[in-house]
Amino acid sequence: MRIRFFCGHPYLIVMPTAFEFCLPTAAKIVPDGAGWLHEIKYDGYRLRVERKGDTVRLFTRNGHDWTKRYPWIVEAALKNREEHFVIDGEAVVLGVDGISDFNALHSRKNDAEVQLYAFDILALGGEDLRPLPLTTRKTKLARLLRGRPDGIFIAPFESGEIRPELFRAACSMGLEGLVSKRRDRRYGAGRSKDWIKVKNRTHPAMTREL
Q1: What is the pTM of this model?
Q2: Domain locations in the chain?
Q3: Which CA distances in Å does 47 have to 56, 64, 88, 92, 198?
């Protein structure tokens, strides 16, 4: 909760609660068209970062609190000038080639090296951003994380017109695949057809059971 002033009068800003993850729908073909944005699918654990003042908490898809597990992400969140925000992303360990290494992540031997691959923002400064279009949320996320790459780095994205080439490039690099998202849609809880994931069928994640 924060106090702000409008025309000299104080009013309260209250952080939204009851956040739930938006989950992509699996597909075999990457969607086409200018209405879509495409992100690299990193191989890690889905994570939500919530900061309220001097407190940062990390939550998994299943509601587990992993705040103590990944100190680098917590430290990065606390270094930000903004004291109230909620970020959606993927906890990853990056290899020397810049590709996420799930085995290194899963082993728990590299918890201090785990970073957040941030791709969405749900709240900022007490404002619920979920009703806003994806492109607007991404602009706000980029501003929040500008100049602060260590521990939390922002997910780049590409427009729909180059989706076949991007998917082939992702597969040739040994990446897990792509997640495509409708650029004009709100952030909705649960499984959504506005987010489409297409996996590299040769990637180990295709046979992994978590």
Answers
A1: 0.84
A2: 21-206
A3: 13, 10, 6, 10, 20
Task: For the beta carbon of residue 144, count every other beta carbon within 10 angstroms.
Answer: 19
Task: Provide the residue-wise pLDDT of the chain in tens; the chain has 210 residues.
Answer: 444 443 454 434 444 557 999 999 999 888 888 899 998 888 899 999 999 999 999 999 999 999 999 999 999 999 999 999 999 999 999 988 788 889 999 999 999 999 999 999 999 999 999 999 999 999 999 999 987 668 999 887 777 666 566 677 666 666 778 899 999 999 999 999 999 999 876 655 555 444
Given 28, 41, 197, 199, which residue is catalytic? 41
* Domain 21-206 listed as CATH 3.30.470.30: yes
Q: Assess whether 109 carries a catalytic annotation.
A: no
